[in-house]
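SAMPLE LOG
Freezer: B-3
Tube label: C17
Construct: single chain, 84 aa
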Amino acid sequence: MSKNQVVSIAPRTRLSLLKNKIAVVAVASAPLSAFAVETAIDTTSVVSTLGLAVAAVGALGAAKLAPAALTWVWSLVTGMAKRG
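STRUCTURE (predicted):
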């Protein structure tokens, strides 16, 4: 493999720059359009759904750790019982 490899990069055209500018303006104006609404957006259901999702992930994590924790505690108890 040659050490002097040349990589050609396609030049940025005006059309691609214009597309990027339009995308930036669209993304930046989206939050501003939320303030144009007369009433506030109700996010209570979103917050409760996220809370339930976090609780579910926590419950799954605890369920995965419970057998290992119980085994560890059981080994401690049996170890203490053997020592007297």
